[in-house]
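Quick start: read one record
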Amino acid sequence: MPDVPAELISFLDEQFRYLHKKKRVIKELADTRRWNLAYISALTKFSLLPTHVILHMYKVYVDDFSGVSIDNLAMFLEGCGRFLLRDEATGPRMAAMCNPPERGPRQEKERSQMVLFIRHLIYDVLAKKTIDKVLKLLRKLDWDDSEVQQTLHKVFTRPWKVKYANVSLLALLSYDLQRYHAAFSIGVVDQVLEDIRRGLEVPLHVLGIVVSELTRHSR
């Protein structure tokens, strides 16, 4: 059996993680989810995916047993669940995860409607085609509100939470906002530089991209 290129496995794994992070975007990503799980299931049944990768994916759905994750889990089990239960390498772990110890319901972090709206703009809406729209909506926020300020500072100084291709867009937004809220953009740059200096356990190359993009746009 030929080896599956590591690039393909990495792509499917990264796409899986991205789709789970975007679990509140349901209709727009439904086809992509089906495609991702179909490929994963097919490769699994031919024993072409590493055991730890496929078990991690299953555990993600079991731990987040709500909303679209339930539908994804159903597709996952329909696609390769029987194989995983019967396979010697995955059967015991699957059986254990199918019968987990009793625990209380998962507590969702409570966020205000304004916080959810800002996160939706940055994590779900932001794209090359929508960056002008996102900028206009951000400008319309009440920038004197402390909750708005804190939320914006958080999402702009944690670029590893956005899609990798949108890191430069996040930097461009910060640059455009400095014309109206200079103190905010300066604070973002200062925080990113401080995070790099302290060597926090985050993807530092992503932080570096933010700084380089802000520098390029400021010229």
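The radius of gyration is 21 Å.
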